[in-house]
Amino acid sequence: MLDQSVQQVKGVGERLASYLNDLSIYTIRDLLFYFPFRYDEFEVKPLTELVHKETATLEGKVATQPSLAYYGKKKSRLTFTMQVGEFAVKVVMFNRAFLKKSLEMDDTVTVTGKWDMHRLQLTATHLKKGEAKSDAPIQPVYSVSEHVKLSTLKKVMREAIEEFGDHVDEVLPESYLDMYKLPQRHRAMRDMHFPESRILLKHARRRFTYEELLLFQLRMQLLRKRYKEATEGNALHYDNGVLTEFVASLPFSLTEAQKRSLAEILKDMKQPHRMNRLLQGDVGSGKTVVAAISMYGAVTAGKQAALMVPTEILAEQHASSLQQLFGGRLNVRLLTGSVKGNRRREIIEEIETGTIDILIGTHALIQEDVRFSKLGFVVIDEQHRFGVEQRRTLRDKGMKPDVLFMTATPIPRTLAITAFGDMDVSSIDEMPSGRKEVETYWVKGKMTERVLGFIRKQVQQGGQAYVICPLIEESDKLDIQNAVELYEQLREVYEPEVTVGLMHGRLSNEEKEGIMTEFAENRTQILVSTTVVEVGVDVPNASVMVIYDADRFGLSQLHQLRGRVGRGERQSYCILLAEPKGDTGKERMRIMTETTDGFKLSEEDLKIRGPGDFFGRKQSGLPEFKVADMVHDYRALETARKDAAEIIDSGWLEEKEEFRSLRNMLRHDLENIGEVLD
After folding, report:
1. Contact indicator for 179, 50 with CB cutoff of 8 Å
2. What is the pLDDT of residues 361-384, one digit of tens each?
3. Residue ranges of the Helicase C-terminal domain (predicted)?
């Protein structure tokens, strides 16, 4: 019944139906679940209970004669002071000139609008003479269009609820409603639209938040289960004694977070299905060591391991550090596009005969002539830099190898659960002891001369510096223009004593690699760059990171850039040059100077920017929830994830009658990925 056209609702003709279609409302079900995006509450509260920048309703007496000012064409500003208890509150109303004649001193008025706690000011959108009603209803506010008025939508919604509201089926099992004290679905749906009290609205929101998150997590758990079933792998029976002895021989102790992540990976390796795990951790947290021990484990199980990284310089650095780490225990080789002729043929042969234990390289690893003898473990570093096909090609080169993805972008737990719900996630959220923190300073533009002097001093002491260019959103061309201009300015300041290099996005990969190599080898002391500075490249000498117009970057990006320095023995510095106009920019600068913890920063970034912008607007890969909010509802997200895992792992979804409605909803949702539940 609910899947009938919205035209079945009284008052909806063909024309209105077409306008509702523009709002993605096609059926009666679409209409009933088209929830308000906010509510106007006309409940009068004491000033002490009001929240800054939120909607509030105040009642009081007009204490000053209203004044009216005009600006622009037909635009006006009405201002007066009202006495609310012992406080004088300024009320501002725009484009309500007609009210001036009706307001007199000592009139009792009720006003609603945005509350500014610091100025004791209310920017009002509603004004009513007289006292507020104690039972004033909570008014729903919907997203509407120029053709669909709010009043029209509310009228249509009431009709739909009266006629069809009782036909809304329950989808959650009774036991879950009891356990979490959630209202029935049809009741909660009514309360989402026309709540009789704030308590009923709160419970309705709680119910739909849990329902949305549970359905999403069930899809994720089903995907994970399907992946495991479709990707039977090989249980890797590694030699625990050899690994324990190797870890004990390391010149440093593993952190608790490294030990925990390593244990999770090793446990996966023993399973008969293919591992699909993300290892995330801050720059310098020791992900590579954990990956190296895991690869060693695969070798002790009689398999080969491969590490694929995005650039040649990074591959060379990894090969060098792993050869040093293993100290002759294993045959570690490097294969990149630069390896040619006899040397390449020799490596290809050693891969095929199985004499190479660990192969490190770029996308050269996935070329057709590279054939492994017994590839059992694959590590893909900075996995977002490779396309899906490239990752799949490497996976398919082995006999169903385990796959470990690594990223240096710390992802907040709520996002990790949501965006990577079909993967297992290990987090190294602790830094090795003794590592010097990068000192971070926020300075204004007038201090640029001092900053340039500081760079000169650092270079004279043997250090190097990155200078990151102002970011101009959506304009690669202007970014490069900026970089070139800054490069020319700095050359005038520093050369010939100091060599300045330039890197930007229009250069070829070979040119970028060459410039990074020159910088890594200290043939260039200052590198001017747009944000294309390679992730993960170690330049131990680099001790200064200067970021122009730093307020234009997100916290995560600023933190990634800061991670380019502080990789050697030197004390390192990050200088943020910025003059932010808004509160958000100032807040970012403050947070950056207060913490170097990437996970804390990523949580703050998520709060400031929201989940869509965290991964970038183009492909956040995140679901659009109608009611749930990943940032604020993280406890419900955790609960839903736990419940979904239990429902799928126990087989209840297929077996128990009380899960039939959920099963039906999921069957409909999963058709797109070819999942069919019996």
Report:
1. no
2. 988 777 788 888 998 898 988 755
3. 447-607
